[in-house]
Amino acid sequence: MVLRRSFRECEKSLCARSAAFGLASVAAASLSPASAETLESAMAKAYGGNPQLNASRALTRVRDEDVAIAQSGYRPTASMNVQAGVTQQEGSLEGGTRQQLLKPASAGLVVNQTLFNGFQTDNNTRRAEFGVYSQRETLRFTEMSVLFNAVQAYMNVLSDTATLELRRNNVEVLEEQLRQTRDRFNVGEVTRTDVAQAEARLAGARADVSAAESALRTSIGIYRQNIGVEPRQLAPGRPLDRYVPASLDQAVAVGLKEHPQILSAFHAVDAAEAQVKVFEGTLYPTLSVQGQVQQAYDQQLANTSGYAASILGRLTIPLYQGGQEYAQIRQAKEQVGQRRIEAEQVRDQVRAQIVDFWGRLEAAKARVIASQAQVQANEVALNGVREEARVGQRTTLDVLNAQQELLNARVNLITAQRDRVIFSYGVVQAIGRLTVRFTAVPVAAYSPKAHFDQVKDLWFGVRTADGR
Predict the structure, then answer these.
(1) Are 198 and 400 in contact, with CB atoms under 8 Å apart?
(2) CA–CA separation, 10 and 183 (whole Å)
């Protein structure tokens, strides 16, 4: 009787520790609030240092230069030509020969300015600007993906840590139960079968601990990949319910209006339409003006010089270029149609993703409630089975099974709590609002417009603007 009482007290202690080991409470059990890493601070680290996001920012700065390149068509071009050398001339004249050593040299400046080119420069600039806008939306989508991956990595480390601790506690309970079962076997209260069942269950629990340790190591590696640091003292993660719309219809409406993939696709349509106008501009006349100044020395005779200056206007009217320009126009129009179809496809994909995450979030909420009820019911059942086993109405296997069901229920609760947090962020991502501007992540927001404003009107210079 004394052995049974000590075993029961051990079970109560360990089960209490396991029951308190919910996803939120256990993460903060051994932490001081000042030193704990929060979900928001982890997202801030990912926002500032994630290589994928930084590469997308760099690509956005690359696209900014397309506008400066297109605007060069508005500006004049200038070139200077300088020549210098030595010329030996020999010739025959009446009564003899003549030799002359010349040192010809010349310097000239040529300036060209396009006055009209069928609005090609205007449309090239518009096309480049639409490309910049499209890339900015792609950058925003990358930002949302990086932040969502950070949330998943953070919550997976939390849940895997909680699961590992539950399984380790389970091993302690089973070790104690095996010891008590052997003691009872020695005094003839149970059979060798009961001992073997307890041994088998303990071996399985130890294997589960090894699997949980492996899963945690994997989650830590993914955390390091997405956030850039090793996980240390993670605080509880909480759902992002304040940014989740009140209904699925509202979520779909917001997503179709604001999702960056949709906006990027429609900017691509605008860029394709501008490209059509660029090709149509090749059918228009081109008007330009050229100014030239030249100073020359020793061109024909020694010790002579000459000066020339001119301003010329040039009008070029294309008549027929083999049909290439017409084919390019038709091709560009087909690309406009392709981009429009792709934009509608993206809208459908976004809508489906919103519905998917909304359903997952609702299911996770229901699973949390059901899992909590399941844990409570299994706790009552386990206590009852133990009491019945104490008076001989239940076997050791019944106790082991009841304990395993309680463990599974607690693991399911941890998983449901994790999914509850992740899918709330998933809904916010699906509608296009999982950015630092919406979620109040404690970090300075990156502004792609800063670099664009720095370079769009530059006339010269090879140093790259900071713009970060």
Answers:
(1) yes
(2) 16
User: Helix (H, G, I), strand (E, B), or coil: what is residue 306?
Assistant: strand
Closest CA to 3 of 170, 166, 190: 190
CB under 8 Å to 200, separation ≥6 — which residues?
none
In the chain, what is the straight-line distance between the N-terminal and C-terminal CA atoms, in Å?
Answer: 72
CB 146 within 8 A of CB 52: yes
Q: Is the dihedral of CA 408, 410, 412, 415 positive or negative?
A: negative
pLDDT beyond 70 at 253 = yes
What are the chain's domains?
Answer: 2-82+102-317+346-439 (1.20.1600.10)
Q: Between 88 and 307, whose confidence is greater?
A: 307
Write down the residue that tokens 């109040």 correspond to: 440
Q: With the CA atoms of 27, 29, 30 and 35 taken in that order, what torsion angle do they form, in degrees rounded to the nearest 10? A: 60
Per-residue pLDDT at 21: 41
Angle at the Cα of 441 (from 436 to 442), degrees rounded to 5? 125
Q: Which of 267, 271, 269, 272 is nearest to 133 (CA)?
A: 267
